[in-house]
Amino acid sequence: MKAVVYRKYGGPDVLSLEEMAKPQPEGDQVLVKIHAASANPLDWHFMRGTPLLMRLQSGLMKPKNIRIGSDIAGFVEAVGPDVVELKPGDQVFGDFEGSGGFAEYACGPEKSLALKPDNASFAEAAAIPIAGLTALQSLRDHGKIQAGQQVLVNGASGGVGTYAVQIAKAYEATVTGICSTRNVELARSLGADHIIDYTQVDFAKSGQTYDLILDIAGNLSLTSLNRTLKPNGMGVVVGFSSLWRVPPIALFGSRVGKQEGKSIGLMLAKIKQEDLKELRDLFAAGKIKSVIDKRYPFHETAEAIRYLETSRARGKVIIDIGDSDAMI
Fold it and tell me: pTM of this prediction?
């Protein structure tokens, strides 16, 4: 089989498409014939070995796991003896957490997969996993979202943001999205009730407050978050424009607004099969859709990563490996 690998740290030029042995499932593992994969910021962080903390997991001097890619959609090719639900021929989507999703085949645990929505193409399904899980878990588990709340999504047009706006609306919240001028109509089309164009307006000076703020762009200061949260409000920080923004949130986020019942914290998504199933059901019901900015053929995976690194992608970037448009 063919797979994208990187044998040293660096930019997209270190990626190569190589022939490798097809993996075989063991235990609770599932072998998937991949039709589509989606690129995530974590992919290029692993590829570049930055920030340096990443190398504690991926290898200090060179990568331990040379394959790249996580989010996938395709057919189950084979299953290990301990697999319970899935069987060969099932159409699935999920996240194999860096187990080589940019490949013709990938092998990973059953708990990282769910049946694909019948009304989703493989490309649309591959777009969902980590971005959808991050949005869902941020709003539901960390933000404790409730119907009727005022919710602010900072970074409403990106991979996580496009799902976050839709999921918040599915939970019957009133949603305000922050994005640039070129993405205003996109955020509105996803259901945002109010749009803030950050190139024109500083939301932190508007006087408007929110029950829940989801900071995906990672460029809001702790002071701004605290000022714009209502009493008992929740701030959930997902992304970071700089690693130096992490310590203040981690150290002081739970204290800065404590007297008013506010809480601001960090969030890292977890791969949970039950949450993949919830996202599948939301997609099947028409409550969420995948926004795909660009698609690249398998041999142009490096170009897909290069574009993702510009931070200008609207929604998701997809890599077509098989028949990604199929809704079999």
Answer: 0.95
List CB contacts of 209: < 8 A, sequence separation 6 or more.
150, 228, 229, 230, 233
Residue pLDDT, tens place only, 90-112: 999 999 987 799 999 999 999 99
Of the candidate CATH numbers 3.30.450.20, 3.30.930.10, 3.40.50.720, 3.30.365.10, the domain formed by 131-266 belongs to 3.40.50.720
Domain 2-128+290-320 architecture: Alpha-Beta Complex (3.90)
Looking from the CA of 138 toward its CB, the CA atoms found within 13 Å total 33
pLDDT in tens, 281-326: 999 999 999 999 999 999 999 999 999 999 889 999 999 998 777 6
Domain ranges of the chain: 2-128+290-320, 131-266
